[in-house]
Design goal:
Blueprint (H helix, E strand, L loop, with lengths): L6 H18 L19 H12 L3 H13 L4 H14 L3 H13 L4 H17 L1 H15 L4
Helix pairs in contact: 1-5, 2-3, 3-4, 4-5, 5-6, 5-7, 6-7
Length: about 150
């Protein structure tokens, strides 16, 4: 009898792969982009302060929280929440790419499909190289409707 991997194992593997991708992502800073923290770990003080700062509209705080929850906590729901907040206050293509990837990991819904299409189209305009990296991933999620 051939055993099929459970959805939980596949989900955990996907989170691990995306976490490694986030950790290894190294791009030169461009004007208007949020600089990535050299480490995604946050201390207790940062965990108390960053949510307040993010809720007050600081994009870099929201971005750091998204990175933390994705890579350190493997909590894609929280990562999506903070990446969505960062996306509202910046045009950083890194945030758009990571938000798109996080949405896909969190499962399908009509509103999420619309978000993936929007994020992909925005990426095409501001960073075609990043858009190319996520094209197949996004097309599979939305059923090829990019």
């Amino acid at each position: 009898m051939i055993m099929r991997p459970s959805v939980y194992i596949l989900s955990a593997l996907a989170v691990l792969v995306v976490g490694i991708y986030f950790f290894c992502e190294q791009l030169p800073e461009k004007e208007g982009e949020i600089a990535m923290s050299p480490t995604f770990a946050l201390n207790d003080e940062e965990l108390r302060q960053l949510p307040k700062q993010a809720l007050a509209g600081e994009c870099s705080a929201a971005s750091r929280l998204g990175d933390f929850y994705m890579t350190q906590m493997s909590n894609t729901d929280e990562a999506e929440r903070w990446y969505r907040m960062a996306d509202r206050c910046t045009k950083d293509p890194r945030i758009k790419e990571f938000l798109l990837r996080t949405i896909v990991l969190n499962g399908k819904s009509n509103s999420r499909i619309k978000d993936v299409i929007r994020l992909y189209r925005e990426l095409e305009v501001i960073d075609s190289e990043r858009a190319g990296r996520v094209k197949d991933y996004a097309e599979e999620y939305v059923g090829g409707r990019l």
